[in-house]
Amino acid sequence: MRIATWNVNSLRSRIDRVEAFLERHDIDVLAVQETKAREDQLPLMGLHARGYDIAAAGYNQWNGVAIISRVGIEDVTVGFPDMPEFDGASEARAIGALCGGVRIWSLYVPNGRKIDDPHYAYKLDWLGKLRTAAAEWTDQPVALVGDWNIAPTDEDVFDMAQFATSTHVTPPERAAFQAFLDSGYAEVTRPHTPGPDVYTYWDYYRQRFERNRGLRIDFALCSPPLASRVTGAFIDTDERDPAQGTGSPSDHAPVIVDLSD
DNA sequence: ATGGTCGCTTTGCGA
């Protein structure tokens, strides 16, 4: 089975690229973030025509997560136990489903904005609550995939000096990420895509992609029963290339993981 | 310190 995660930055404006990506790489399950589409706005036709079903949740102006699968979508869960919300807004940033016998979670970790912003505390709270919930799932095949909005190591940042006072690299955020590994989850993409200079996100401006000045913030964390099935992983940087495909690209590249049966 | 570029519930805001 081949699964993938991709922050698409609007499913509607990117649907042609998404469908081409599914076909090009023969994807079985795609976890999507930043869909920016309500249930009634989901572009379903091309996906259904290609044999995919979709489960989506949590739209506001910036968010929205979904799971696109051609190996079934069962037992869909929106959010996880005790998931905190921000400012009373409906911010379902997590959707889980059983796809081909694997529980896949599409995660859009809160950005955090600025260190002194309440959104930063919310991010750490959110991650802590997810970790508590996820620690109960380690005996099952579980994948926690998505946009983690954390660069776990200095190598995951094109220029640490530029992030001296920024979120995504602070010790509490990195500790929150490490806590998942301490719970038994394995980040399965890095061993197959070693750095340096390997990223999954590049800002739109200042030609950051063309100069490969990016961040590695999209990951796939697998529980022990699933991690042992991983046979490979890669980052499809072509999907971030404005010179390739139709229309403007997302600012994130998809991350693909292969699993044995 | 600032600005650059995307998307959208667009003339502001979050990323």
Large-scale geometry: globular
**Which class best fits the helix and strand makeup?**
alpha+beta
Number of strands: 12
Strand order of the largest sheet: 3-4-2-1-12-11
Radius of gyration, in Å, reads 17 Å
Separation, N- and C-terminal Cα atoms: 7 Å
- The helix content, as a percent range, equals 10-25%
Q: CATH superfamily assignment?
A: Endonuclease/exonuclease/phosphatase
* Continuous helix count: 5
The CATH topology is what? Deoxyribonuclease I, Chain A
Beta content comes to: 15-25%
In this structure, how is the largest beta sheet organized?
A: 6 strands, mixed
The pLDDT mean sits at 95
Order of helices and strands: EHEHEEEEEHEHEEHEE
Poorly predicted runs are none
How many domains, in number, for the residues? 1
Pfam family, one: Exo_endo_phos
Protein name: Exodeoxyribonuclease III
Site (Transition state stabilizer): 149
Region (Disordered): 237-261
